[in-house]
Amino acid sequence: DAGVIQSPRHEVTEMGQEVTLRCKPISGHDYLFWYRQTMMRGLELLIYFNNNVPIDDSGMPEDRFSAKMPNASFSTLKIQPSEPRDSAVYFCASSRSTDNYGYTFGSGTRLTVV
Amino acid sequence: GENVEQHPSTLSVQEGDSAVIKCTYSDSASNYFPWYKQELGKRPQLIIDIRSNVGEKKDQRIAVTLNKTAKHFSLHITETQPEDSAVYFCAASKGSNYQLIWGAGTKLIIKP
């Protein structure tokens, strides 16, 4: 199994530009989570999906952030327009409800907004 | 809502000594408590977890203990090695919605 795959690994963009982060969960996993990690705020849950349906998006900081999961093997997190304070590492994680609840994280996308 | 507090924020121990990281949770309905290790520049990885129906679980040099009455759980690492240097996160969940509530993390430094 290739694990949770995220792309790109690094993204540098200018303020105001649209940024799209991508995630492919582990096959058979029915939960998908988007996290943001910064030194100041630690790990923050942004949104999570169950069977492709968004369950809780209360962690999404602003309307500039949106997430979709069109099918069981793909999810996107979009920021439009991006701002310097969005700079962080964004992790995607997946899990299977019939397993022991453990999450598997992707390698993350390091986003820098200049 | 659930709150998880983790202490200490930084822990420095001599190689070969033991390290203990403690977490407390607020929601007595929480029943699943994982620990993740995050090395510098890498993803968090699950290293051990415990459920509320057991008090202790071991896996080689690491162990986790749970005190449901006091609502706290701890990670114990014995015979620490340089590769144990990392940030460790505890978390708690009620399991029903699979949302983990995270501690703030502990930076473990192993001194040679």
Q: Can you tell me the residue ranges of chain A where pLDDT is under 50 for at least 5 consecutive residues?
A: none
Strand segment tally of chain A:
11
- Beta-strand percent range of chain A: over 45%
CA radius of gyration of chain B: 13 Å
Question: Per DSSP, what share of the residues of chain B sits in E-state strands of 2 or more residues?
Answer: over 45%
Give the helix/strand class of chain A: mainly beta
Question: In total, how many beta strands of chain B?
Answer: 11
* Order of helix and strand elements from N to C terminus of chain B: EEEEEEEEEEE
- Percent helix of chain A: under 10%
- Low-pLDDT segments of chain B: none
Q: Write down the overall geometry of chain B.
A: globular
Order of helices and strands of chain A: EEEEEEEEEEE
**How far is the N terminus from the C terminus of chain A?**
36 Å
What spatial form of chain A do the alpha-carbon principal axes imply?
globular
Report the biggest beta sheet of chain B as strand number plus sense, adding barrel if it closes. Answer: 6 strands, mixed
The pair of chains with the biggest contact is: A-B, 20 and 18 residues
Mean pLDDT of chain A: 93
* Biggest sheet record of chain A: 7 strands, mixed
Oligomer: heterodimer
Give an overview of the whole structure.
The complex is a heterodimer of chains A (114) and B (112). In chain A, 0% of the residues lie in helices and 54% in strands. Chain A has strands at residues 5-7, 10-13, 19-24, 31-38, 42-50, 53-56, 65-71, 74-79, 88-95, 104-105, 109-113. In chain A, strands 2, 4, 5, 6, 9, 10 and 11 form a seven-stranded mixed β-sheet that branches. A four-stranded antiparallel β-sheet of chain A has the order 1-3-8-7, with no helix packed on it. The radius of gyration of chain A is 13 Å and the shape is globular. Chain A starts with a strand and ends with a strand. In chain B, strands 2, 4, 5, 9, 10 and 11 form a six-stranded mixed β-sheet that branches. In chain B, strands 1-3-8-7-6 form a five-stranded antiparallel β-sheet, with no helix packed on it. The mean pLDDT of chain B is 93.
